[in-house]
Amino acid sequence: MAQKIQREYQRAQCVALSNAGLSCREASKIIGISKSSVQRAIKRFEETGAFHDRNVRMLKRLTENDGRYSSREITNKLNNSLKNPVCKATVINYLRRSGYECKTKIKKPFLTIKHKKERLNWCLAHFNWTINDWERVTFSDETTFYVIKHKNKVKIWRTKDEQSKEGCMEVAAIGGGGGRVNFWDAIRSEGTGCFRIYSENTNSNVYCDILDNYLIPTVQLYQMENDFFLPA
Length: 232
Fold this sequence. Notes:
Nucleotidyltransferase, domain 5; alpha+beta; four-stranded antiparallel sheet; 8 strands; Transposase_Tc1-like; Homeodomain-like_sf; DNA binding; 18% strand; single chain; two-stranded antiparallel sheet
C-alpha cells in the first residue's frame, strides 16, 4: 500500500514539475526516476486527469462494454469515480490515441437462433461441393429498400477490428416512414440475370410472376434450359 502511495506521489511530482517549466530529464533527476516514467506520468494525467492506473482501466472498460457508450456517456460515468472531473475533450483525446474511432453502428439483419442454425446447417451440407456443382446453381433473392425520413444513427467508439462485434452493430429497423421499393435479382456463375423492381408486397402472385418472367428467362439467357438449377 505504501509503495502504491509513493508511486502516485511521484506521478504528482512529475506533473507539478512539468507545469513549473522543467523538462522531463530535469524532473527525472529531481524525483529519482527514469525520464520515460516522467513522460508516462504526464501523459496519463493529461489523458485521464488522475495519477493512478485505475481510472485508465475503468475508461477502457466503459469503452469496450457491450452497450458501447458515446463519448459524453463515457465522460459522465468516468467522472462519477474521479475526484477531479475531466472534460469530454480529454476523454476523446485518450480514445483516439488508443486507436478508437467514433463510428456509426453498422446495420445487421435480425437473425434468431433458429435462423443461425439453419444457415450453418446449409453451409455444412454443401461444404464439399465442387466448382462444377456450384456452376449448376441459380441463386435468387429479393430485398426491400426503405426511405427513412428521420436520421437515427447511433455513434459509438470502437477500433477498426471491432466493426463486426455484437456491441458495435444494431438490428436494422423495419420501415422508416418514407416509402419503400423492392428489388429481385438472380445470379449464376456466368453473371447476373434479369431483375425486377416493384413496390407491391411479395405475395404468391408476384412471386410466380417473377419465376415465370424473370428467373426462367435468366436461365434461358445463358442457354441453360436443360441443366439442373436450384433457386436459393
